[in-house]
Amino acid sequence: MVELALESVGYRYRGGHQAVTDVGLRLGPGIVGLLGPNGAGKSTLMRVLSTLARATAGRVLWRGEDIARRPDALRAELGYLPQDFGVYEALSAREFLAFLAAVKSLPARAVAGRVEECLEMVGLHDVADRRLGDYSGGMRQRVGIAQALLNDPSLLIVDEPTVGLDPEERLRFRHLLAELAGQRLVILSTHIVSDIEASAGELAIMAGGQLRFHGTPEVLIATA
Ligand code: ADP
Ligand code: ADP
């Protein structure tokens, strides 16, 4: 069963800044919108959940196992689109994805087919031979999602994916994530409420490093 459990998770940066404090959450398949203003601790928490940073307090369990003890078990099932995702502008989308698949040590035999599937899923198949330097911001973000899907992840973490996109690209991106959810757990961080109000089954709202709300959008509206 796809399940990510956070138990009193905290993160303190070297130098002393407490960016995340006592966050408890239990998440299953579907889209979870992680909302909060700049500085709320969203990126820090996402780095912890993607094993790039290790919680300094509490623990994170993936399918019941502590990710600090077995990070590889989570990494094998993780797709991650960081906020600062960059592309090699001289490569085509097809070349870039094949390169990343090799870096992620996908079996060589499977690479070409999987690259085509991922290009198809994000709607870039017809322009896959164009150089990435000529792509729009929205197209680049779709390349970012495509690379996150290469290993067919059960957990997809996307950090502020719609920053810099125009409204049409943003809408398209929302539809794409909704299509991808299915049996996956998708965690999407944003400070733009409209990115997730329609698609997220659950919301988690952070402020000042703490979790201030977790529940459905309906419950949030009812309690507001
Ligand atoms: P976000 O857009 O998620 O709020 P920030 O603008 O806070 O990100 O941070 C951008 C980058 O600078 C990140 O890589 C973050 O780790 C780093 N950073 C942010 N605040 C500090 C800080 N006080 N000291 C050192 N690095 C920081
Ligand atoms: P958000 O993603 O919600 O904007 P962040 O997780 O980027 O929030 O930042 C949470 C807090 O941690 C902020 O106060 C930020 O300045 C601080 N911070 C982020 N990165 C670093 C860092 N590398 N070193 C020290 N403080 C940081």
From TrEMBL:
It comes from the Bacteria. The chain holds residues 1 to 224 of 293 of the full protein. The keyword Transport applies. Belongs to the ABC transporter superfamily. Residues 4-224 form the ABC transporter domain. Keywords: ATP-binding, Nucleotide-binding, Transport. GO terms for molecular function: ATP binding; ATP hydrolysis activity. This is ABC transporter ATP-binding protein.
